[in-house]
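This week, study the protein below.
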Amino acid sequence: MTTKATTRSPAEIALIAFAFLFAAALLLVPLTLIFSFALREGLGVYLANIAEPTTLHSIGLTVLTAVVVVPVNIVIGVCVAWLVSRFNFRGRQLLITIVELPAAVSPIVAGTVYLFLYGGQGLLGPALQGAGIQLMFTVTAIILVSLFVTAPFVARELIPLMQQQGSEDEEAALSLGASGWQMFWFVTLPNIRWAILYGAILTNARVMGEFGAVSVVSGSIRGQTNTLPLQISQLFNDFNVTGAFAASSTLAFMAVLTLVLKSALEAKGGWR
């Protein structure tokens, strides 16, 4: 069967060209500049800056934070979306507001709140210190504040989708004798997998790029509590421009790798 070639109007061609140019200006040009500045002194210097111990530690800490935060937020997001979309209860709208709250709060304010709660002079700080527990200026603090600032992303993707889909398929599965786990695994999950994936990608991007909240609670200790964005900032402050761009290129590579993995899943069709 033959198909007619689509003839586009000049206006459509202009809009498509504008979209590509706009995307290139926002994405490709900055990425090109980052890698060109990172490599301007040669590949050897670039690799030496990446292999610098504090930079390597910041990369590892950033990846560790994402590995912990993303799965936790997926589980919490699915549970909240299930509760909100499948049950009517008093306080339901309040719960939705609470889930959205981190998106409305400045990251620096969020970090400051954690510091006032759990810091040495904070509300709960003396009690924690008396128990021999220190949360602030540790990896734990970075993970906690990252969980807070990324809390809405998965739930935001899932709640409208699950509300639109309704619960008819799940009720049918239960009426046919499926257990709760079977209903979720074989009926609910296939319908929300893409939303979970998109929410995970947004969460991962925010975790790896978070600066404000983490800078407050981490103490920015080199080789201990510096995530990659904090390391980049400190390298710039040290006038190590090449090292800063080398670290920035690593962060950019992580973001691109995330998008490549997403595209690979889409092409494979395993999430359809």
User: Anything to note?
Assistant: The chain has one domain: 44-268. The chain has a mean pLDDT of 88. The chain is about 75% helix and 0% strand. The longest helix spans residues 53-86.
